[in-house]
Design goal:
The protein is elongated. The strands form 6 sheets. Strands 10, 11, 13, 14 and 15 form a 5-stranded antiparallel sheet that branches. Strands 4-3-6-7 form a 4-stranded antiparallel sheet, with helices on one face. A 4-stranded antiparallel sheet has the order 19-18-21-22, with no helix packed on it. About 5% of the residues lie in helices and about 40% in strands. It folds into 3 domains: about 40-140, Immunoglobulins (Immunoglobulin-like); about 150-230, Sandwich (Immunoglobulin-like); about 245-320, Sandwich (Immunoglobulin-like). The chain has helices at about 5-20, 85-90, and strands at about 40-45, 45-55, 70-75, 90-95, 105-110, 115-125, 140, 150-155, 160-165, 170-175, 185-190, 195, 205-215, 220, 230, 245-250, 255, 265-275, 275-280, 285-290, 295-305, 320. It has about 325 residues and is mainly beta. The protein is built from 2 helices and 22 strands.
């Protein structure tokens, strides 16, 4: 082949090798943010609290701009089957406050919706208001605001803290925080304005707060939280008096035995003879009175002490003597 014809063919081969395979052109990215899937709502006090995570990516895996338009709507549910178009036209759009992170928290005044079931949903819009669709839909039955408990007070109780408060509600949640906790934890519920926390340690400081709640369909409406109180329980309560005391005379002694105290803060026993203490600090439920005199009748009683030094009432007496 002539050299003048070979050169153009070589150049064409080099160009094709550098460009690689040319396929079908890709469609332009629509940049639609992913759907929100974790929208949640609760009525608390006079507000409806709404929370959801703003998606970070589009359906093509591209980053969603931090200032993407967010359409959050709340509106009354119509009777019968849910109709998206009707809800979208009659619902209220809720403004979203600018945020620094991807977790959106929104408060909506609830008074407008008292006595209604509302439907809440959100969508994040891309360019030209393109959307991957509405989030999960949350239905919420809205009731007049529940009263927050007030006058919350704590008092010592045997191995417990007793709480009382004022509020006209059918159910309450009780929350507690210890110095080791990072936040409050619900420890129980009550249908009366009182609760006894029997999972305490004396001398440890606890913080408490209470909330009124009411069942609405499958959810609960909540009141605002009560004020927080701090309380350090003190052991002011003596153990139960020992039982089962018996006195058996021996040759030179009188042997005493009684039922063992099983309370968790039990510390020791004291023994009394004719009203006078003759032994203290006993760990076992038994005592040998070696000072008893023959021919004399004695009356014995026993008490129990706890770790705080509280002494119980005296046991029923047991009387005997050495013949």
């Amino acid at each position: 082949m002539p050299r003048t014809r070979l050169l153009p063919l070589l150049l064409a081969g080099v160009l094709l090798a550098g460009c690689g395979y040319v396929g079908e052109p890709l469609p332009p990215a629509l940049k639609r943010p992913l759907r929100v899937t974790d929208l949640a709502a609760v009525e608390r006090g006079s507000k409806i609290l709404i929370q959801f995570t703003i998606p970070r990516l589009t359906t093509e895996g591209l980053a969603v701009p931090a200032d993407a338009d967010i359409e959050l709507r709340i509106g009354a549910a119509s009777a019968g089957a849910f109709e998206m178009d009707a809800w979208q036209k009659t619902s209220d759009r809720v403004p979203i406050i600018p945020r620094d992170d991807r977790l959106a928290r929104v408060e909506v005044p609830a008074a407008k919706y008292y006595g209604q079931t509302v439907v809440i949903a959100v969508q994040v819009l891309g360019p030209k208001e393109r959307s991957a669709g509405w989030s999960n839909f949350e239905a919420l039955s809205v009731i007049p605001a529940l009263p927050a408990p007030d006058n919350l007070a704590a008092a010592d109780a045997p191995d417990a803290v007793h709480l009382e408060w004022r509020a006209a509600a059918s159910e309450f949640r009780v929350f507690r925080k210890t110095p080791d906790d990072t936040g409050f934890t619900q420890i129980g519920t009550s249908t009366v304005p009182a609760y006894t926390d029997n999972t305490i340690d004396y001398g440890k400081t606890y913080r408490y707060l209470v909330q009124s709640v009411a069942k609405t369909d499958s959810k609960y409406a909540e009141s605002d939280l009560s004020t927080t109180i701090s309380f350090t329980p003190t052991d002011k309560f003596p153990p139960a008096a020992p039982t089962g005391l018996s006195a058996v005379p021996g040759t030179r002694t009188i042997e005493l035995v009684w039922d063992r105290n099983t309370e968790k803060d039990f510390a020791s026993y004291n023994v009394y003879r004719d009203g006078q203490k003759i032994a203290e600090g006993l760990s076992a439920p038994a005592y040998s009175d070696k000072d008893a005199q023959a021919g004399t009748m004695y009356q014995y009683q026993v008490t129990a002490l706890d770790t705080a030094g509280n002494e119980s009432a005296k046991s029923p007496a047991a009387a005997t003597g050495i013949p």
